[in-house]
Design a protein that fits this description.
Protein name: NAD(P)-dependent dehydrogenase (Short-subunit alcohol dehydrogenase family)
Order of helices and strands: EHEHEHEHEHHEHHEEH
Strand content: 5-15%
CATH class: Alpha Beta
GO molecular function: oxidoreductase activity
Strand order of the largest sheet: 3-2-1-4-5-6-7-8
Helix content: 40-55%
Number of domains: 1
Family: Belongs to the short-chain dehydrogenases/reductases (SDR) family.
Structural class: alpha/beta
Bound molecules: nicotinamide-adenine-dinucleotide
Domain Ketoreductase: 8-205
Number of helices: 9
InterPro entries: KR_dom, NAD(P)-bd_dom_sf, Peroxisomal_Beta-Oxidation, Sc_DH/Rdtase_CS, SDR_fam
Distance between the termini: 43 Å
Length: 293
């Protein structure tokens, strides 16, 4: 136990199992009181009627920490607001939001059903937006009342969203959206003392076990110390960043940047574009390979 997060209050979404569970245990180990959120759904997002958050709360309490169960669907706007309210009512405030909940329905693009697209986009993108929207409004109100809270948001992107992943069009689009949301939220909320970063984790969980050879894959808890530090008051100078974590290696992800450019000085003629664009493409670095390509 350290006191890195002593006196701070956290929400971790999707914390009943996998990476979110590891984050919740780690934040509690460093002194945070934790709202352990989990809707309790299958890997494909179907209801199971179970609340794995309860056993995580029991583990935290058995280790001497403070935690409470929340069973919100994080992509439901009103339930996300009630989750933020629960943290404030139970523990007296909110300092840390770890957006982690999500599920996959992997398909090649041409086989993807409309309903699969909607469900995966909803759980990741709206499931990040809704808690962030309500927590952000609370932090703005606190800052305006002279009670700025050194608040920290850690979102969950993915290598699939940053480099792309064959067979995961929908998931990759959602996770790329989370990376972009992180950049904008960091700019908008900085004035209230809030930092917003994202991680791209790697771990052997039910999400990866079916899809890849996970025998040498990192463990969920390998991701959590970096989340704990980003959640601390001392991390106030790091914002708008995406950090990949793979076992013992953390990598700063560099996003879209302006590359080679040429100004025609007038509107381009279509017939000129081919040679000019090929020349520019040859000047820049090759894109990183898409996972599974
Ligand atoms: N495992 C990896 O290698 C990996 C890689 C990159 C990104 N990620 C991301 O990390 C996060 C955690 O993944 P994991 O591997 O631990 O998966 P997991 O399936 O083990 O855990 C996800 C948890 O989220 C919960 N959940 C799903 N929808 C929810 C909702 N609407 N509201 C509340 N809870 C909900 C589930 O019940 C589950 O307990 C996800 O966002 C995932 O996309 C994982």
């Amino acid at each position: 136990m350290s006191n890195l997060l002593e006196g701070r209050v956290a929400i971790v979404t999707g914390a009943g199992r996998g990476i979110g569970r590891a984050h919740a245990l780690e934040l509690a180990r460093h002194g945070a009181a934790v709202v352990v959120n989990d809707y309790g759904v299958s890997l494909a997002g179907e209801g199971t009627g179970e609340t794995p958050a309860e056993s995580v709360v029991a583990e935290i309490e058995a280790a001497g920490g403070r935690a409470v169960v929340n069973t919100a669907d994080v992509a439901d706007f009103d339930q996300a607001e009630a989750m933020v309210r629960q943290a404030i009512d139970t523990f007296g405030g909110l300092d840390i939001l770890v957006n982690n909940a999500g599920f996959v329905r992997d398909r090649m693009l041409v086989n993807t059903a409309e309903e699969e697209w909607d469900a995966v986009i909803r759980v990741h993108l709206k499931g990040h937006f809704a808690p962030l929207r309500h927590a952000g409004a609370y932090w703005r109100a606190e800052a305006k009342a002279g009670r700025e809270r050194a608040a920290r948001v850690i979102n969950t992107s993915s290598g699939a969203g940053l480099q792309g992943s064959v067979g995961q069009t929908t998931y990759s689009a959602a996770k790329a959206g989370i990376a972009a949301m992180t950049l904008v939220a960091a700019q908008e909320m900085g004035r209230y003392g809030v930092t917003v970063n994202a991680i791209a984790p790697v771990a052997r969980t039910r999400m990866t076990e079916g899809a890849f050879d996970t025998s040498a894959m990192a463990l969920p808890e390998d991701n959590s110390p970096i989340v704990a530090w980003l959640a601390s008051a001392e991390a106030g100078d790091v914002t708008g960043r995406v950090i990949e974590i793979d076992g013992s290696t953390m990598t700063v992800e560099l996003g879209w940047r302006h590359g080679p450019a040429r100004d025609a000085g007038r509107r381009w003629e279509a017939v000129e574009v081919g040679p000019a664009l090929r020349d520019l493409l040859a000047q820049g670095p090759d894109p990183e390979p898409v996972y599974g390509a």
